[in-house]
Structures are given as C-alpha cells and as structure tokens.
Write the structure tokens for this entry.
Amino acid sequence: MDKKDICSYTYSELQDEVKSLGEKPFRAGQIYEWLHVKLAEDFDEMTNLSKDFRRRLGEEYEIRRLTLAERQISKKDPTEKYLFELQDGNLVESVLMRYSYGNSVCISSQAGCRMGCRFCASTIGGLARNLSTSEMLGQIYRVQKLIGERVSNIVVMGTGEPLDNYDNFLKFIHMVSDDHGLHISQRNITASTCGIVPAVRRLAEEGLQITLALSLHGSSQEKRRLLMPVAEKYELSEVLAACEYYFQKTGRRVTYEYSLVQGINDTDEDAAALARMLGGRNCHINLIPVNQIKERNFQKPCRKNTLEFKNKLEHHKINVTIRRERGSDIDGACGQLRRRHTASQKEN
Ligand code: SAH
C-alpha cells in the first residue's frame, strides 16, 4: 500500500492523524513545523521526536520529494527557472522572479493542461494529472531552500488550470498562508484562471483574500473563441459576471490578462471593445505580448503597437500595465522548459 502523503495534511488534519497514532496533540504542532516551516525532507531530521515515533511515522507516511531536474538562471534579469521531477516521473516547472519587494515564485497546478489555449505550450501534450497539495507546496519549499531566502509572493500561473484542480488548489492556499506554516499573506498570492465560471463563483465564497486573474485574451466572445476553447463552454458575459461577483464578495480588484497577438486581438477595434467591456470596473489589465512558441505561429505586436494599445486603454481611464518580459533567454513562456525536456528525452 502507498504510504500517506504527510505534507498534504492541513494542521487540523495532522492533529487528527497524530491522535489516531495515540500521541499527544502537541506532537502535531512539532511535525507541522518541521514539514512546513523548517522544510524537513526526512523524518530523521525531526530531532525533538523520539526515534521510535520517527520510525513509526516513516512506516505509515512519506515526505514526497521533488527532484531538481534542471535549473536555468537568466543572464538578462533576476529570474530563475526550475524543472522538478515528481515521484512518478512527471515534470513540472516553477519560476523565481526577484523583485525589489521580495521573491515571487510562479508555480504549476497540474502536470500538463487540458484547456487547450492555442498559444500556450503547456497544453500541447494534454493533461497528465492533477498535482497534489504537497506538490504545489513542494515547489515553493524547494525554491526557498535552493536560494536560502524567503519567498514572499506566489503566482499560480505556471502549467495547469488551478480551478480544474479545485480542492487541492484551495487546500494549498490555506496551507501556504496558515500561520503554522510559511504564513505567506493571501494578499501576496495571485491565481490565474481561464474562466471556469462555476469554480470562479465558488472561489468567491471561500472567504479568501487572494487576487484573481482572469485570462481574457479576446475583446469579444467570438475573438475569445479563436484563442481559447474554454470559451465554447462559457460565454464571455457569464465569465465577466463571475469576476464581478468575485470582486463584490472579496473586495479584491480583479486582474484581466490579455496576451497580445499580432493581427488577431491587437487592433484599434479590440482596444475600443475592451474599453467598453471593462471601463467603469475597478480592475487592472495586464498586457502580455504573446511569447512565441515553436509549435504555433502566433507573433507579438512590435513595441510601438503594444504601447499604442496601452495608451488607448489608458485614454479610457483603465488601469493597464505591460507585463515586463522576464527570463526570455531561459524558456520563459509557460510550459516551454517542460516541453523541451520531454521532447529531448523522447529523442534519446
Ligand atoms: N490556466 C491558467 C493559468 C496558467 S497560464 C490560465 O489560463 O490563466 C498563465 C497566463 O499565461 C495565462 O493568462 C495564459 O493565457 C498566459 N500564457 C500562456 N502561454 C502564453 C504565451 N505563449 N504567451 C503569452 N501568454 C501566455
């Protein structure tokens, strides 16, 4: 039988486990601290537990490991990219971006993705499987250990659709922000979704303070359908209503991500339609010049056109930023490192 994945237990779940082992409740606090604050990778590190208890823990539970398969350090900016191998051989990518305000880590929520966005490398091989809560936490823990510095911000914008892995993702948010663990403020966490309407509405009810980012990418239902198959399922008007609901429930301003693709969604009409759609909303638009992937022929607009698009939105009093390109020399776009690695293994 598989051993139990001890890092996926919340603080209170761990208390129940410890009780069922016939141990004193305070032992749960000690174990949780070893796992989620001191980031122990072996029960033998837990020196304030008896050898016998450590042995019993090791018989029933395991601390699942992420093995570093590749690390790329950008020469252009303070960005690093990691490829981690999970215990079953699946690969996931994480990215570290250092900013003046702290270290931000972008994590993956699934191995692969089934959403099929046309410009995205992560979805080309489809979904392999959901990540467990411990595998999401593990990406942050491994990065923090590798760099020897605290991670203060998280973006769930790597491979996968977090709301397609709802329960594990939600537990991850609770555990990473729990004051018994790393205690990262929910206000420093952003999760990006392609817009699974019922899940956005459900998330709005969870009493969280994380920022929701919606991948919009089209200025109308028709244009969005060209790039995102999920738009076949949910009408743009429903998606926007769900985001407004998230804002009403949480008071958190929603970010709209818009990947600019030359000739497809970067025209004057697109800017005007976007302004009509979002003008008056308390929101923020993040323009992302599309990161070209070799499997697709989408190109980003030139710098001048990107700036003009931004100016048009600003003219309508919309908060808008252009995402700074980071790590473009290190397979920066979602899923590229994982894809290259998998492809090269197949060739060997
Ligand atoms: N599934 C989630 C999160 C993962 S992708 C979502 O759809 O939001 C994170 C963001 O990067 C999304 O806005 C996604 O559309 C965008 N993205 C993916 N590949 C890209 C590329 N090649 N160029 C620009 N943006 C990309």
Observations:
- The chain has a mean pLDDT of 95.
- The pocket of S-adenosyl-L-homocysteine is lined by residues 115, 117, 119-120, 157, 161, 192-194, 215, 257, 259, 288, 290-291, 293, 333-334 (CB under 6 Å).
- The longest strand covers residues 91-99.
- The radius of gyration is 21 Å.
